[in-house]
Amino acid sequence: MSSIRFFRTFVAVARSGSFAAASERVSLTPAAVSLQMRALEDDLGLTLFDRSGKIVSLSESGHRLLPRAEQLLALYDDLRDGPDGDHEVVGSINVGAVATSMAFLARAVLILREAHPKLKVQPAINFSGDLSLRVRAGELDAALAVKNAHKLPAGTQWTPLYTEPFVFIANRQSAGRADIGGLMKRRLFLRPSRSTHTGALIDAFVRRNRLRFGEFLEINSLRTMVELVQQDVGITIVPLTRAARWEDDPRLRVTYFDDPTAHRAVGLFESEARSHLTSALRRVLLDTIEQDDQLRQ
């Protein structure tokens, strides 16, 4: 039977992206980390990692397990801190969020303030820039943001919260049933700025699927792009954000892609030095997502 330390090692590997980096965090050799992960996989009957390349990455089962493992460790740490698992969190944290996740963060902050009145949380919206680097630099204690393909900055940890699928959006009246390829070539392509993580991910997706387009316009705001499609200015490919209701809009034709890589991952970046405070926010975010998912079922 797997122990708590196996799950702690699993989370360390998931956050750092390699057995070698995780070994430093859990004070084990890389070989011992590998053995623990094999034992955990055998115990659970799951393949948690993709070991086909030089970089270890989570499998689909690994991604599903990670938030549950985070919750398990949080519950264990609460029990260890006191007989009833109830302890006061005192301090202050600055938390950033991308614009599309700000409402989700605000809900969590209200819950957190009620549960831990002595923990001061200052949320701030961010429209550009790499929030993970701001966490690493100490400008933010945590950030709710999009994960890119780069290695996690040293001194930070990452907890995936949810994914948002990429969708093709066109004006329903003018697009009719025309295929995506034809519309991409004929209409103005409204694309997220490639200087952003989302823009870079969508650009890679478009190139990977060999989607051709003619005239294009780069825009920083997802909401602005969708509003322009509503006005029949052009077409776009954007992530279907968690709070969006674009599929219910009679002016829009929303099409999903048959591609498991067509999504962006949104999660919480935390400063490891401040995780004793930001972990309270992490638990609230995970609980909120679980409750939302139960309501949607």
From TrEMBL:
Domain HTH lysR-type, first and last residues per copy = 1-59
The record's section on Pfam families has: HTH_1 (PF00126), LysR_substrate (PF03466)
Highest taxon of source: Bacteria
Q: Does the keyword Zinc apply?
A: no
Molecular function (Gene Ontology), one example: DNA binding
| Span of the signal peptide | none
Q: What PROSITE patterns is this protein classified in? A: HTH_LYSR (PS50931)
What the entry lists under InterPro entries is as follows: HTH-type_LysR_regulators (IPR050950), LysR_HTH_N (IPR000847), LysR_subst-bd (IPR005119), WH-like_DNA-bd_sf (IPR036388), WH_DNA-bd_sf (IPR036390)
Where is it found, in Gene Ontology cellular component terms?
A: cytosol
Report whether NAD shows up as a keyword of the record. Answer: no
Annotated keywords: DNA-binding, Transcription, Transcription regulation
Task: Give the similarity note.
Answer: Belongs to the LysR transcriptional regulatory family.
Question: What is this protein called in UniProt?
Answer: HTH-type transcriptional activator CmpR
